[in-house]
Design brief:
Elements lengths: L4 E6 L3 E6 L6 H14 L12 H8 L3 H13 L3 E2 L7 E2 L24 E2 L12 H14 L14 H15 L8 E4 L2 H14 L4 E6 L3 H9 L3 E8 L2 E2 L10 E4 L13 H14 L2 E5 L23 E6 L11 E4 L2 H15 L4 H12 L2 H24 L6 E3 L6 E5 L7 H10 L2 E2 L1 E2 L14 E5 L8 H17 L12
Parallel strand pairs: 5-16, 7-8, 7-10, 10-11, 11-12
Antiparallel strand pairs: 1-2, 3-4, 6-13, 8-9, 12-13, 14-15, 15-18, 17-18
Helix pairs in contact: 1-3, 2-3, 4-10, 5-10, 6-9, 11-13
Length: about 475
């Protein structure tokens, strides 16, 4: 190895990469290399440095040279030394730190003080104990193959657990061989649309309003979309026309209006799919969270060979797990699996095995039941608060993780309210951008999520929201009534 480079083991365990340079004596070169690594941030505060004996051996220096370099850096405030303990990087004062490169000083969007965006769960309620217990069980019985290349269709253990769970709780008719595990609903849509486009099934109906991100995902995959109006009974499936090959629906809890697809329309769209060979893509959006009665069953059971049923852990556990699933008609399984293999080979395997255990031991059911009670109370508090402002109307059945509030035509605009909320640290979402073709004549609205704030922070979030609404609808200086802690 050239003298000016070394890859040393910190304390015998951690790699340390130093550029010793070529100018000057050995001690000054080592001192300068360590100083640069500390000032640049490559060695952070508290990082233990190698022992003088170990570093001297790896660099081919005398131990006295390394000791002298350490002593000089300690005098300058870059490292701390204590008898019997490893030399560590000190908390370097600003005047000793390297100048931050201009590119690193670009402003970053600050996190909102109160996150009331729709579709976000309370991450602080993640079932850590259950997940940890499942992790121990999975690792305790795992064979070496569990850490190898995975199955592009998904681990069979998870597919078995999902087939049982979905049949029991959502009425889905499936077997493990018809399930494909993906790294999220986004990937599921991308893979499916790639397959549909290759098969020439290139015309799709999408809900209007609907999720604009996924609508654009469908378009980017090469499919032509047209809007399917949504009213008080859900998507108007009687508007399906022409050579429509696919329809994308959120039948259990429409996003964003919150209404479920009426039973007569469920029957109608299932009949359309069976008669035409059309495909229904069912996003079971918030399907687990119905608060006034048992959740509405999946549409998939009405036409199992014509429905792609999609579910995910992003709302029940958290999007960071990157775990979702699609229940496919038999003829789509093989092409979607091939598309998955081409996209990223397979999803991470250990998380799949842990989730399978969490589901099989019914810890997943217990977590969802607890979340239902918590979110139900939060929704009631939000509805109670919004109802104190005349002209504001809430839409949707008691379900999901958000409530849609329609704004009166003679009040402040949606854009003005969103701007005011942003300046007060409130993160919400507007209705206008979710329309297939946003226009100024459509009624404005706010999508207010009630799940994301931590339990202790929810009352403060509602107080902040109430303050904005009071100022916007009743004039400045009107205090918002505080809510009790849920």
């Amino acid at each position: 190895m050239p003298e000016n480079w070394t890859s040393s083991r910190l304390g015998g365990h951690v790699d340390l990469h130093l550029d010793l340079g070529a100018e000057g004596g050995r001690r000054s070169r080592l001192e300068a290399a360590l100083r640069e690594a500390i000032r640049s941030g490559r060695l952070s505060t508290g990082t233990p440095l190698p022992s003088t004996r170990g570093l001297a051996r790896e660099l081919g220096l005398s131990r006295g040279t390394v000791t002298a370099a350490y002593d000089q850096l300690a005098e300058q405030g870059y490292v701390t030394t204590r008898p019997g303990a490893a030399t560590q990087v000190a908390d370097v004062p600003p005047h000793l730190s390297a100048q931050t490169p201009p590119a690193a000083t670009s402003p970053r969007t600050p996190s909102p003080a109160h996150d009331l965006r729709p579709g976000r769960p309370d991450l602080g309620a993640f079932p850590t104990r259950a997940w940890l217990a499942a992790t121990r069980r999975v690792l305790g019985r795992a064979r070496p193959e569990a850490f190898g290349a995975g199955d592009p269709q998904g681990q069979v253990e998870l597919r078995i657990a999902l087939a049982d769970y979905l049949g029991r709780t959502r009425g889905v008719l499936t077997t493990p061989d018809r399930i494909v595990v993906t790294s999220g609903y986004y990937q599921a849509v991308r893979l499916l649309c790639r397959v549909l486009s290759a098969q020439g099934r290139a015309v799709a109906a999408v809900e209007d309003p609907g999720h604009n991100f996924y609508r654009e995902t469908v378009r980017r995959a090469g499919l032509t979309t047209y809007p399917l109006p949504v009213d008080a009974y859900g998507a108007d499936v009687t508007a399906l026309a022409g050579p429509t090959h696919t329809v994308f629906l959120t039948p259990s809890h429409h996003y964003p209006t919150g209404v479920p697809l009426h039973p007569s329309r469920r029957q109608a769209v299932a009949a359309w799919a069976r008669a035409t060979g059309g495909l229904i893509v069912e996003d079971d959006y918030d399907g687990e969270f119905r608060y006034d009665r048992h959740p509405v069953g999946a549409l998939q059971s009405l036409a199992p060979d014509n429905v792609v049923y999609c579910g995910t852990t992003s709302k029940t556990l958290g999007p960071g797990l990157r775990l979702a699933w699609s229940v496919l008609p038999p003829d789509l399984v093989a092409p979607v699996v091939r598309a998955k293999e081409e996209a990223d080979q397979y999803s991470e395997t250990l998380g799949q095995l842990i989730l399978a255990d969490v589901i099989a031991t019914h810890a997943y059911d217990r977590h969802i039941r607890a979340a239902r009670l918590r979110y139900r109370r939060r929704r009631e508090l939000l509805i109670e608060r919004v109802s104190t402002f005349p002209g504001l109307t809430t839409h949707g059945v008691p379900a999901g993780l958000h409530t849609l509030v329609i704004l009166p035509p003679d009040g402040p605009t949606e854009a003005a309210l969103l701007t005011t909320c942003a300046t007060r640290g409130l993160a919400l979402r507007g209705l206008t951008e979710l329309h297939h073709t946003p226009t100024a004549d459509r009624p404005g609205g706010l999508l207010i999520g009630f799940a994301a704030p931590p339990e202790r922070g929810y009352p403060a979030a509602l107080d902040a929201l109430s303050g904005v609404l009071a100022e916007s609808f009743t004039g400045p200086g009107t205090p918002g009534r505080r809510v009790p802690r849920p």
